[in-house]
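Incident review: delayed structure delivery

Summary: a single-chain prediction request sat in the queue longer than the usual turnaround. Root cause was a stuck worker, restarted by the on-call engineer. No data loss occurred. The affected request and its eventual output are reproduced below so the record is complete for anyone auditing the incident later.

Affected input:
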Amino acid sequence: MQNFWKQLLLCLPVLALAFGVLAPQGAEARQAELNYFTSEKTEVDGQEGWRIEIGVNRDDVKYEVKEKSVLKREVVLDLENTARGKLAQHIKQTGPLVSAVQIDELQSKANRHTQVRVALRPEAGDVAYRVTPLPADRHARKPFRLALDIYPKPTAPPVGSVEDVSGHTIVLDAGHGGSDTGAVGPSGVTEASVTLAVTQDLRDILQNSGARVVMTRDTDVDVYGPNASAHDELQARVDVGARVPSAEVFLSIHCNAFSNPGAHGMETYYYPGSSAGARFATILNEELEKAGGRTNRGVKSANFYVIHHSPMPASLVELAFITNPTEENLLSDEDYQKNLAMALAKGIARFFRER
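Output delivered after worker restart:
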């Protein structure tokens, strides 16, 4: 009998927890509390921004940050399983980007959480933001903090320009697209996405230099239409250029592929018998070699449909092997794509200058 009562006493806490009489031990202790707030001007990448520091009595708080613009533009820092503590609910701000901070304590199905809502000024423009955890500083009497930096979104760097293309009309063909991804690299990068990115960069450089650019496609679409035959799709690309009487050159941009992942390098093509096409492909090849640093597989002739049927000097370039892991990584890099685009722009400029 003594053993029976002993076992029953041991089971009571478990039974109480199961029926909701007791809360899980330590549930309240797991909740963090905000205990510090400060804000000041800061500098991010040479631009004036605004920093808000939120102190927490634990250093393992989970959080997320996002921008909202339903009723007013805000950057919201959401901290899981936290209470506002003794911090004021509304804190006015004097920063150039931020007008006020609202700290709200909310209850969800999972737990209580705190939202630090940072109101952006109407004149703030496009902003970027980041959160940096800061360790406790006992000497300065500062707890563990989350530093939220808000700063003007960096402007895109200039696209660059080349000489000797102003007034000329160029047709650019980004290979594949839409229902046709083209070749796919080992990590999933598609030929269609790379060719479009490089072609768009090239278009921007040429237009910035005064050229007229005609694109067979400038989004991820089929030129003729979804699931068209290969002939119809390729002819549709040729037709884009053929409909422009002033068009002077046709450039089709591709990535190479092979079953052996060790295959590597770049190469350029022209249609056999086209002396202007051969010169165009040779110049493009030379400029790609200077900029890309990849193995040069040479200038070759081939009966590719778009360069065969284009009614103007034409070349098809294979930038690198997307099936090679190293080159796939390069081809998906935005800076490398821009380097390739500039090389092609220089090649087009040379073709006009040296003819």
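Verification: The longest strand covers residues 32-44.
Action items: add queue-age alerting; document worker restart procedure.
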